């Protein structure tokens, strides 16, 4: 299609080649740790010289909507890597063997795409990795998960043998405690990076990123940040968007504090509806 200049992306519409670390608000520690780890991908010769074994996996741990996918995309752009994304939820209804085959495909496609695009590295991002990387034997009748996880382990073990394309697996989860021990042992997911809900300062930063370019009137984003304790980056993006929609509905050219206040309520209500168990 029209995206020849970008790496092949599965299940994600934004182009990872465009995502910069600067467009991710807060997450200072996560960014720092991730950048440090990515230098292993950028300078493999140094890593080899020091006799350090190549980094294979980074695990991003934190609640939904905090920027884990954005971080993985920014990591791909920063290292000029091919980016491939998958979600653990894709594997839920898969028959035995199909999940394992899909894992094989993702890794081989990452590699072949990198070779085709003359890139030296590939980043594979698997969201909700606890679904396929859950403790083995814990699903009782779901033997297919074990095969899928085993295949993932096989792929991770094989990563180091390819010197034309370096592959890095970035996994995301909000339930690190559910992961099989084999995944988090040294040589697999070597690094765990905590991606937490934004604090007041980070919320201000995120609001500036999402509302800063919108026409605001008497809106103090720090005040909005104070009123959005517990909101994720995704929630804050929604608030900025909803506020703009509300202003437009009133045929106003400026977004006011009142619009933000209503938008906050709307996002809170939406959350409650989503959490209703009998949906
Ligand atoms: P999930 O676990 O649900 O997949 P996630 O942690 O991967 O969530 P993202 O997909 O990265 O979250 O974020 C969703 C959207 O929320 C982003 O596209 C962005 O608009 C907004 N967002 C989330 N976190 C941040 C942040 N730290 N800075 C700026 N925007 C953010």
UniProtKB/TrEMBL annotation:
<keyword id="KW-0472">Membrane</keyword>
<dbReference type="GO" id="GO:0005524">
    <property type="term" value="F:ATP binding"/>
</dbReference>
<dbReference type="GO" id="GO:0030163">
    <property type="term" value="P:protein catabolic process"/>
</dbReference>
<keyword id="KW-0812">Transmembrane</keyword>
<keyword id="KW-0479">Metal-binding</keyword>
<dbReference type="GO" id="GO:0004222">
    <property type="term" value="F:metalloendopeptidase activity"/>
</dbReference>
<keyword id="KW-0547">Nucleotide-binding</keyword>
<feature type="domain" description="AAA+ ATPase">
    <location>
        <begin position="54"/>
        <end position="199"/>
    </location>
</feature>
<keyword id="KW-0645">Protease</keyword>
<dbReference type="GO" id="GO:0005886">
    <property type="term" value="C:plasma membrane"/>
</dbReference>
<keyword id="KW-0482">Metalloprotease</keyword>
<keyword id="KW-0067">ATP-binding</keyword>
<keyword id="KW-0378">Hydrolase</keyword>
<dbReference type="GO" id="GO:0006508">
    <property type="term" value="P:proteolysis"/>
</dbReference>
<protein>
    <submittedName>
        <fullName>Vesicle-fusing ATPase</fullName>
        <ecNumber>3.6.4.6</ecNumber>
    </submittedName>
</protein>
<dbReference type="GO" id="GO:0046872">
    <property type="term" value="F:metal ion binding"/>
</dbReference>
<dbReference type="GO" id="GO:0004176">
    <property type="term" value="F:ATP-dependent peptidase activity"/>
</dbReference>
<keyword id="KW-0862">Zinc</keyword>
<dbReference type="GO" id="GO:0016887">
    <property type="term" value="F:ATP hydrolysis activity"/>
</dbReference>
<keyword id="KW-1133">Transmembrane helix</keyword>
<comment type="similarity">
    <text>Belongs to the AAA ATPase family.</text>
</comment>
<comment type="similarity">
    <text>In the C-terminal section; belongs to the peptidase M41 family.</text>
</comment>
